[in-house]
Design goal:
Helix content is 47%, strand content 18%. With 328 residues, the chain is of the alpha/beta class.
Length: 328
């Protein structure tokens, strides 16, 4: 009789242990996130990267139930921000908003991180073209006139860049190649400072992501000549496409996406993807992004985003290599 009681008590105890372990494992999985999340971006306030980061932080915070705090780490073409995230704990509480890692891998000789190995893709956020602009005092009214003026004055037009490896910098280099012109380019720490330079007249030309300059264009403070897609975009009314404006064969677009450190649990990556995709599916969020000249473009899954990145890597490496751009 005592032996039976002992066996019964042991069975109950073991069952309780199994239940307890299962429950605490489930509770641990449900606990994420349990504290604020840091969303890092490699550009200062005023540009497309900052705009999208703040929008995503606000919307994802609503879905995740915790504060998502924006951390601007500008400089060196977002390599500083990427390095910060790559070396952060892989617990899902540090997220990066950035473009393709292949751009900086091809552009910078020495990086302290490997974007392909040290960062895990979460979700594509938005895609858009850049805008070709000039200072209002420059005597050109359209893209053909800009090309003619640049050819007549080689190296005398100063181009305000958003930093090496940025979408505007790559768009400007590609433009020079296709149009057969040469600017004197000055790289700033982001699109915001570059726009201020154009407004002040210190520079005369700028390739900019839409959120950086839409307010200035609407206020008539700078002149938009074309977008870096062949045809016009409904999100950017009144601005012709490059082919329409007189430069066939030219196109340069950009995108931003979310990343986390390598080794982040797949369940956390999936949770972040769900929050991002749900946010980007909201009509009001799509409208806010469209008003800034971009398209909300959430990937179907982290795996789909990773597949896109791998497929695009050779193209971005070739674009940087062909541009001749290099940062020591």
């Amino acid at each position: 009789m005592d032996l039976r009681r002992t066996i019964f008590r042991c069975s109950v105890f073991l069952a309780a242990l199994v239940f307890s372990a299962g429950y605490s494992g489930s509770a641990g999985a449900q606990a994420y996130p349990s504290k604020p999340i840091r969303l890092v971006v490699g550009y200062p306030p005023g540009g497309s990267g900052d705009f999208l980061t703040r929008l995503m932080a606000d919307e994802m915070g609503k879905d995740l139930g915790v504060a998502v705090v924006v951390d601007n780490r500008p400089g060196a073409g977002a390599t500083i921000a990427s390095d910060v995230v790559a070396k952060s704990p892989n617990d899902g509480y540090t997220v990066l908003n950035a473009g393709h890692w292949a751009i900086n891998k091809a552009l910078y000789k020495n990086l302290n991180y490997d974007g392909e190995k040290d960062l895990v893709p979460v979700c594509l956020v938005a895609v858009g073209p850049t805008i070709i602009l000039v200072n209002n005092d420059l005597p050109v009214k359209n893209l053909r006139e800009l090309i003619a003026y640049a050819k007549a004055n080689p190296g005398k037009l100063f181009n305000a860049g958003a930093g090496y490896g940025s979408a505007p910098q790559l768009a400007a280099v590609a433009f020079e190649t296709v149009a057969g012109v040469k600017f004197t380019s000055i790289q700033f720490k982001g699109g915001g400072p570059a726009a201020q330079s154009l407004l002040a007249g210190d520079t005369q030309v700028m390739f900019a992501t839409p959120p950086t300059v839409m307010g200035f264009i609407k206020a008539g403070r700078m002149r938009a000549l074309a977008i870096t897609r062949p045809q016009a975009s409904p999100a950017l009314p009144g601005i012709p496409g490059a082919e329409e404006a007189g430069l066939p064969g030219y196109e340069s677009t950009f995108w931003f996406g979310l990343w986390v450190p390598a080794g982040t649990p797949a369940s956390i990556v999936q949770r972040l993807h769900e929050a991002a995709a749900k946010s980007l599916a909201k009509p009001e969020v799509k409208e806010k992004i469209a008003l800034q000249g971009m398209d909300a473009s959430p990937s179907a899954s982290p795996a789909a985003f990773e597949a896109q990145i791998k497929a695009e890597a050779p193209m971005w490496e070739r674009v940087v290599r062909d541009s001749g751009a290099r940062v020591e």
